[in-house]
Design brief:
Oligomer: single chain
Strand order of the largest sheet: 1-2-6-5
Structural class: mainly beta
Order of helices and strands: EEHEEEEEHEEEE
Number of domains: 2
Protein name: PASTA domain-containing protein
Helix content: under 10%
Largest sheet: 4 strands, antiparallel
Strand content: 25-35%
Number of strands: 11
Distance between the termini: 15 Å
Radius of gyration: 19 Å
């Protein structure tokens, strides 16, 4: 998926996952996490996306897990996506490192509502005896006016330019595409890496992310991108 590292506000995109829970027996109705024990694993689901962070930590620590959970604002299409960073087991959706004994994901039943290349994970599966440190960042839908701290690529499923050939089009062309879809862009310069309200219309677009609802940050340069990502990287099958 297209990610502009200079624009991504210190996030590491590792895959799409809905966070489930860790628990022995049924969780209290007031719990922020739904935690279930299945054989030798916990299945973890977040029930309250706006709970105080300490609430999550206390519920995880009660199961002996040294896992820090953070929720950061993102677009509606990425809400409940999970990004795991700064951990011994750096998780991608459906895959762990190391291959055995780490955190994995559980896909939601049924077909994905969007064309996600990594599937539609709905839960985290954590070994009951897991003793490593891990930091899990879960996306939540941004409040009105809140900037995205997990900025999705413009071409990702559910975003304005999904399945649209916009890389190496001119700024004028992409500006029109975005405004047709109700999105107002700002521009990042590839070399100096600074943000500008406008750039020459004949410059080329290299990439872009949604920075808030109805707002985008577009990476531009006077020259075309010499190594553009193929469209099917974010639009499998070209659909």
């Amino acid at each position: 998926m297209p990610v502009v590292a200079t624009l991504a506000a210190a996030t590491v995109v590792a895959g799409r996952v809905l966070l489930p829970a860790l628990g022995i027996g049924p969780a209290p109705t007031s719990a922020a996490l739904d935690i279930k024990r299945e054989d030798d694993h916990y299945i973890i689901t977040v029930k309250d996306l706006f709970a105080d962070p300490e609430t999550y930590q206390s519920e995880l620590r009660a199961r002996g897990l040294d896992i820090t959970l953070k929720l950061l604002p993102t677009s509606a299409s990425r809400a409940r996506s999970v990004f795991v960073i700064n951990s011994v087991d750096l998780v991608r959706a459906g895959r762990t490192a190391p291959a055995e004994g780490g955190i994995t994901t559980v896909d939601a039943p049924g077909p994905c509502p969007q064309a996600e290349p990594d599937g539609c994970p709905a839960s985290l599966k954590v070994p009951a005896g897991y003793r490593q440190k891990a930091e899990i960042v879960l996306g939540r839908e941004a409040r009105p006016g809140e900037r995205y701290m997990i900025p999705p690529g413009l071409g990702m499923p559910g975003e304005p330019l999904h399945c649209v050939e916009y890389v190496n089009r001119t700024v004028t062309e992409v500006l029109a595409m975005l405004r047709e879809r109700g999105v107002e862009p700002e521009f990042a310069l590839l070399g100096p890496r600074r943000i500008e309200p406008s750039v020459p219309g004949d410059w080329y677009v290299h990439d872009g992310v949604m920075s808030a609802a109805g707002r985008a940050t577009v990476l531009t340069d006077p020259a075309p991108n010499p190594t553009p990502q193929p469209l099917d990287a974010s639009c499998p099958g070209g659909s």
